[in-house]
Automatic annotation (TrEMBL):
Gene3D superfamilies: Aminomethyltransferase beta-barrel domains, Probable tRNA modification gtpase trme, domain 1. InterPro entries: FAO_M, GcvT/YgfZ/DmdA, GcvT/YgfZ_C, GcvT_C, GCVT_N, TrmE/GcvT-like. This is Pyruvate dehydrogenase phosphatase regulatory subunit, mitochondrial. Belongs to the GcvT family. Residues 376-453 form the Aminomethyltransferase C-terminal domain. Signal peptide: none annotated. Residues 55-343 form the GCVT N-terminal domain. SUPFAM superfamilies: Aminomethyltransferase beta-barrel domain (SSF101790), Folate-binding domain (SSF103025). GO terms for cellular component: mitochondrion.
């Protein structure tokens, strides 16, 4: 296994569409013909609009500025400015980028607060969707072996699990739901479409007892997020959305408007209340328009992936590909609670048990920058060095501005090494990181900013039936 994560260079990062000769002829003009400085959030503008969701045309009209992942167009943010729209679309030439405050900052801020105070719709159709099934218990046994969490749960339970390699690292970070008739519905990140299918097919039984189907294109995904999401879903479906009847991390098959067989999951990937609706693609636009019409009284609006990113970073949620990789384990990323060692054998179990016994040398952490001016300072975008008491100790993996805290927030790994550069193992790594004598700094464009460190996701607290975000206290 390579000493560093090479996922960004792995051929499995591509989807079959990338092998189209006309697409390659168009994209290569930009990729090889123009080795210029790339700015953060910059998008390719050739070979675009290849894979789109059923909502795409409607979202274009709404002012969506799209980004591309695995050739799939995804709304990153929304604008009312015609100039902004043209500047950021796939048909426009590259404009001037920035390493500082992005041009869409205020737009994303509005979407962020709408997610926390009203209700927003985020098109998440690009997420990888996989169906795993069998005639008997073979599908369950198969997923139990691949997953580090316990998949043997009641129908309708949402299980968040890693799929580890033999070293305990993440090959996939996914959501699995047991459905009826020995069928399992699995959701993975957009970038994992080829990788996750390859991992499943690599390990499936040779007797053909387990069927694996990529159903990504069969479903649109709509994230209904915000405090008014439960009432809105009740209005359009008639189902009881109280927390007693529709519990967090559970799933129901419902009707919305005239559309049936919609998989509704009570989670939002952000820490805010709400639901992700996986809708048969032919019903996608109808369900979206039904939600928009019914949501006018609740201040409904569209939001994009940048708002979702800032919500999850503020909540200290890790994401596969940036924070979680083949070289990070659940113990190192603070996700040991999603590993079930008692269920029996699974890939990576021995490595994780050894790590639990011997200790870890690095740990995922959240940092809040001090003395940072988001208007004038260069922003962190990932890859920035972390210093502990003046000594380099790791790198930043994800960044975002936390509007609730009004702080620039970074996620990354802190590693302990000795004077020779050898890793030092800790059975209580949190004590090393949270030592009161430790002073942290993040270096951005040659300037060091003092930072406060946090290791724990703050639980969602409810007041008067509504979720309330509790800011992380200063250390």
């Amino acid at each position: 296994m390579p000493s560093i994560d090479l996922s960004s260079h792995d051929i499995l990062r591509h989807v079959p569409h990338h092998n189209n000769q006309q697409f390659l002829a168009e994209r290569v003009k930009e990729t090889l013909g123009n080795y210029t400085l790339r700015y953060p959030t910059e998008q390719r503008y050739r070979g675009r609009k290849l894979r789109t969701s059923p909502l795409h045309t409607r979202l274009e009209v709404q002012g969506a500025c799209f980004g591309e992942t695995n050739a799939y167009e995804r709304p990153m943010w929304f604008t009312n400015s015609h100039d902004d729209y043209l500047y950021n679309q796939y048909n426009s030439e590259k404009g001037k980028g920035t390493f500082g405050k992005p041009t869409f900052f205020d737009n994303v801020k509005e979407e962020y607060w709408a997610c926390k105070e009203h209700v927003c719709l985020i098109d998440m159709s690009s997420f990888t969707k996989t169906e795993v099934k069998s005639k008997g218990p073979e599908a369950l046994e198969f997923l139990q072996y691949l997953s580090s969490n316990n998949i043997e749960q009641p129908i309708g339970t949402i299980i968040h699990t890693g799929m580890q390699n033999e070293f305990g690292g993440y090959e996939n970070d996914c959501t699995i739901v047991p459905m009826e008739n020995n069928t399992f519905f699995m959701i993975s990140p957009t970038s994992q479409q080829t990788r996750s299918l390859n991992w499943l097919r690599k390990h499936r039984p040779l007797d053909g007892s387990v069927e694996i189907r990529d159903v990504t294109s069969a479903y649109a995904g709509i994230n209904v997020i915000g405090p008014h999401a439960p009432q809105l879903l009740y209005d359009v479906s008639g189902i009881n959305t109280s927390r007693q009847e529709f519990k967090q991390m559970t799933c129901k098959v419902i009707d919305v408007g005239f559309a049936s067989n919609i998989i509704a999951m009570r989670l939002t990937h952000s820490g805010e209340d709400g639901f992700v609706l996986y809708v048969p693609s032919e019903y996608g636009l109808h369900v979206y328009e039904t939600l928009v019409k019914a949501g006018k009284d609740y201040g409904i609006r569209d939001a994009g992936y940048y708002a979702l990113r800032e919500l999850r970073i503020e909540k200290f949620y890790a994401y596969w590909g940036s924070d979680l990789t083949t070289h990070t384990t659940p113990l190192e990323s603070g996700r040991e609670f999603r590993v079930n060692f008692e269920k029996g054998e699974f890939i990576g179990r021995d490595a994780l048990l050894t790590q639990r016994e011997n200790g870890i040398s690095k740990r995922f952490a959240q940092f809040f920058l001090n003395d940072f001016d988001y208007e004038t300072d260069v922003w962190p975008w990932g890859g920035e060095p972390i210093y502990r008491n003046g000594k380099y100790c790791g790198t930043i993996t994800s960044t975002g501005y936390a509007h609730t805290l009004e702080r620039m927030t970074c996620l990354g790994f802190v590693t302990d090494t000795d004077s020779q550069g050898n890793k030092v193992l800790h059975k209580a790594m949190h004590e090393f990181i949270l030592d009161k004598s430790a002073k942290y700094e993040i270096a951005i464009a040659g300037k060091k900013f003092p930072a406060e460190v946090n290791l724990y996701t703050k639980p969602t607290v409810y007041q008067n039936g509504e979720p309330v975000f509790i800011p992380a206290p200063k250390r």
